[in-house]
Design brief:
This protein has eight helices and no strands. By secondary structure, it is mostly helical.
Length: 258
Amino acid sequence: MVTLIGTAEFVVNGTDIFTSIKSYTSASLGYFYYFVFATLWSNALLQAITIFVIASACAVWYFSKSPNMQELDSPVCSGFWMTFRYHFGSIAFGAFILALVQFIQFLFELFNRQLEASGASNKCLEYLMNCIRCCLECIKRIVEFINKNAFILISITGRNFCSSAGDAVSLISSNPIRFSVVAIVGWLLALVGKILIAGLTTLLFYIFVTFVTSVNENIQEPILMLVLVGLSSFAIATIFMSVFDVSVDTLLMCFLID
């Protein structure tokens, strides 16, 4: 990004950095594309590692046979160890596929903005672009779904990414009702959990700033503070409930395999 800003030539075309670059054939833009793809891949890799570690801990708990639960000693650390020792290639490959789809989406939006800036856009072309955008988003969601279940199966069976992805699709297609019911119930519980966590946190903060005199005297805009607390607590609740979501899917996979 620093290289792009320091070497590329710009023209005044609003505030959009993409439509303000004078030449998209400049070699310096290669660094920018590399930066974008590396960022997408890194983000997808972190998400994949998180899913694998959570799934690994749940799988160890489910298949634990020891009466004193010795296998459950530091399951998160064990999950990270297995990630980088045995399965990092599979996880990185799955993250690469997702990052590649997201990068194609990025290039598509880049091209669409250039098309709009050139004035060549019309209704038919706009509808076509929207259809392509919708198809790319569907592909991304499908890849995310397959990746998630593949990482879960990798943590359970220890097989490579391609084999685990095939097994996941086969397992889901052979048990559609169970997966549908669990998905719906899990989505509802996650939604209720997010609302309750965000709502209770915001309510407690409101009580705190309203009835504590020393705090109430120093706050000029309580509404803004409540909005910020509500949004922050909802974001944290979303992260927490994503752990619940992966755990539920992992336990269902373990049950079907067992």
